[in-house]
Amino acid sequence: MNRSFDVVILILNPSNLGVCDSYASYRRGLRTASSKNGSLTDGNKVRLELLSTIVSAFILKTEQPLLKIKIGLKDHFSLFRIDLSSTRAILTREDPKEPAILYEKGTFFYDAYLEDLRQAFEQSKQIDMTKQFVVEGKVTDENLKDLLKELGLYANIQDDDISEIKRVIHYKINPYS
What we know:
177 residues, alpha+beta, globular
């Protein structure tokens, strides 16, 4: 069945190094922090993961034209994560050993979290997803740099950073597992 889907991604602003550092510090303090998920041990690693997420969304948008993707960048982080679908909201924390709470569509909390996410997105810096990112089978240093420059996210990027972003995209590394 061919139908379009709306995907809204609300993540930390990779240009805000202070919030990236704060988030990394918080992650290091979790009881489940380990070398296994140690990819987010400092602010720069958090920033590169966020940039990788943005680039991955552009790649997915190109590969799956029925996906309507929106990305908002926020300058603060919450201790909670909300994953919201058209039928459920799941509230979790960063620590995978913590319990989750499920709210069905139509309940007070589902509606409250939906509105909270809408408001947070409206207050975020929104990425222009109309920018073209032509991959043609492979992400190159040049097309990656061009995209980040067009999005205003290229400040303080080194060649090693570009290589790391490409590595994360290629191997689909999940630092949250």
